[in-house]
Design a protein that fits this description.
This protein is about 75% helix and about 0% strand.
């Protein structure tokens, strides 16, 4: 697999976002090299599939959280003494888990494009793709089990279990008009927040940070992940496919009731509630267009952004108790960038 230049995508695609990854360009390139090596370790007939889904670098946000949390937990300058093997390996593990979740998500959502290429599901069909995702999960756990301490494997296993459970809950509640806002928050905390959280926790743990810092960073990751997922749900409704490089509108089409739609259900009354309910159940030919008229009229995109901003600000509070250092500053910067994106929708 040819090593490609790190080029963050979707909502973090501009120059401001790239600057946050510059301090860890070397470690991220090592992640790409390790991914290539891991692809080669699969059966030759499977390796090509693994290579395909891993070959296009995304944001690599989760490895970045590992590295920056390690620095934040210890107070050491970024890269002082080099990025030791454990951190590189942890970054690789969380990225493999993330890639596996994307492969499975695209099957569930019927998405055909991700990172401007056909998804695995569109290229090979759901049968091969679901097994491919399983292979990636299993391989990540195999690598986690190689650490001398069982803590890493246990936490990665727990996080993977939580992520998959969140996906199951979300799938069970598709087209469920009784889904509450709190239930939605719990689902995205599981399916997105858990992997962000364990990335931060492992970074602080393997970097040698104290227990208090590990706990703070775990909470930061969870809150940051929840805010990020709400933003992603907003983008799915109002984003531009040409800019995001992936299929949009799949949440609505597949009956995922995300925050802007749940807020809409809370606010419409009487006959309008019946119409919106019917639209969410895809009972009209022009359901999306009609529904977006209601979303705009009730300003639920703006309201969703405000709720996400609250989670992002709470995430910032978790960093406030950490000593001021370069790692903590870069984590704040990532969170501030998300806050800026959310404020664009206010």
């Amino acid at each position: 697999m040819k090593i490609k230049k790190i080029d963050p995508d979707i909502s973090f695609s501009d120059e401001a976002a790239r600057r946050f990854l510059e301090p860890i360009t070397g470690p991220l390139q090592q992640i790409e090299q390790r991914l290539a090596a891991q692809c080669a370790s699969f059966d030759p007939n499977v390796a090509a599939c693994v290579d395909y889904v891993a070959a296009t670098p995304g944001k690599r946000m989760r490895p970045a959280l590992v590295f920056y949390s390690a620095a934040a937990g210890t107070g050491l300058p970024i890269g002082e003494g080099g990025w030791h093997e454990d951190l590189i390996k942890a970054g690789l593990i969380v990225e493999l888990v993330h890639i596996a979740t994307l492969v499975h998500d695209d099957i569930l959502d019927g998405a055909t494009v991700r990172r401007n290429r056909l998804t695995a599901a569109a290229k090979w069909g759901p049968e091969i793709s679901v097994l491919l995702g399983d292979c990636l999960f299993a391989h990540a756990l195999k690598l986690a089990a190689e650490f001398p301490t069982p803590v890493v494997c246990r936490r990665v296993s727990e996080a993977t279990n939580t992520v998959c459970s969140g996906e199951i809950l979300q799938t069970q509640r598709r087209f469920d008009l009784k889904l509450s806002r709190d239930e939605y928050a719990r689902i995205i905390e599981m399916k997105t927040g858990a992997l962000f959280a364990v990335s931060c926790e492992l970074g602080a743990f393997l970097g040698g940070g104290p227990a208090a810092a590990q706990n703070r960073l775990l909470l930061f990751g969870s809150l940051f992940g929840i805010a990020y997922q709400i933003y992603d749900d907003i983008v799915d409704l109002v984003g531009d496919e040409a800019k995001t490089g992936k299929s949009l509108g799949t949440d609505l089409q597949k009956g995922k009731l995300t925050l802007p739609l749940l807020l809409l259900l809370e606010q419409v009354e009487n006959g309008d509630h019946q119409v919106v309910s019917s639209l969410l159940l895809n009972e009209h030919d022009n359901a999306r267009g009609m529904l977006m008229d209601y979303v705009r009229a009730h300003k639920t995109i703006r309201q969703s952004a405000e709720i996400a901003l609250d989670f992002a600000r709470r995430a910032m509070e978790e960093l406030a108790d950490l000593p001021e250092n370069e790692g903590a500053s870069l984590l704040r910067g990532m969170n501030e960038l998300l806050i800026a994106r959310l404020e664009d929708h206010r």
